[in-house]
From TrEMBL:
Cellular-component GO terms for this entry: cytoplasm
Name of the molecule in the record: Uncharacterized protein
Regions that span the bilayer: none
InterPro entries (UniProt xref): CRAL-TRIO_dom, CRAL-TRIO_dom_sf, CRAL/TRIO_N_dom, CRAL/TRIO_N_dom_sf, GOLD_dom, GOLD_dom_sf, SEC14/CRAL-TRIO_domain
PROSITE patterns per record: CRAL_TRIO, GOLD
Amino acid sequence: MSGYLDDLSIVQEEKLKKFRDRVKDVCTDKHNDYQLLRWLRARDFDLDKSEKMFRNDVKWRKDNKCDTILDTWKPPEVIQKYYTGGLAGFDKEGCPVWIDPYGHIDIRGLIRAAKKSDLIKAQIYRAEYIFSTHKTQSEKLGKTIDQVTLIFDLDKLGTKHMYRPGLDLLIEVFVMFEDHYPETLKFAYVINAPRLFPVAFRLIKPFLSEHTRNRIHILGGNFKKELLNLMSPEELPVHWGGDRKDKNGDPKCSTDISFGGDVPEECYLSASTVSISDDWLELDVGRGSTQKLEYEVKKEGCLLKWEFMTDGSDIGFGVFMKTAPGPQKSDEMEVVVPSNRLNSHIVPEDGNLECTKTGTYVIRFDNSYSYVKAKKVKYNIQVLEADTMSDVSFHSAQDVTLM
């Protein structure tokens, strides 16, 4: 049996019932049987693995404010303009179709013009935007719509796209989709694949589940005919074989689908764009270790603000809150900002958060993944109260070497 709601075996029905009971403490109204089955199918109906994956996702969505991101955040202009892709329309069954002319992306330029954290967040934003259409389509068509079809146009893909930080970003995005949007991919079509494509795909393939790999189709020179089997002509842009043009009469529908292009150098961020004053500090993070900086917040509503850069290599960064007095490991603390590896050696990172609770906030710089190279971090971290910098209570920098 396929594992979908209308095609369950007796064993699968029983596992769905058990799974629903196991995770009822974190379920919301949106977690109907259609949604719960996604997690079961993604882990081949293994209850323990499905539950772990589901609970990790609930926490991840809370940490990243996924449910409100469309209303509370917009990608920086440079990302909106130069990150390729857009919603093309809907297939013949009513599922959204996203077309990404990835061969036109200037990934090196984007990485130099935007923070990695914003590039990742923009992908979450896009995912939530795509899946926001599911509710509308489901109500319109009177059936459940919960998948998306992707079309990757690799025309102009070349060696410049083999840029290591760009590949790392792409892999991180794919892993994010595997972990947090499982079983939402209907099909992925690759068109205009160059001779370089098999090399690039070999690098990415290990990070894709078998479920995902089985839904990827490489189309040949007759791809326009194939795409018309997927979408009606009025939905498919002229550029890919349909009849649709955008409001400006563009056959590429570029008002809806970004074709990227070269990012102007004046958009680049660099260390020179950061004003380093005497209150900036330096921190050495040893090989295979982390450094933790503690800040005491005594009033609700304070702003914890950070700026940092590294010399030569990336660094992991996250914000936590202590849950008990005395020393604590990161996994014993409350996650406030999930830890991610950031290209702060290419583009300086900055950010802030409103401290809704009093207590000890911990900023962690993580180099535990690098057993070869130590990292030097230059940083400026402040606790701001009522638009004025308060006295910052700095406790310690703990050099924790992983055993």
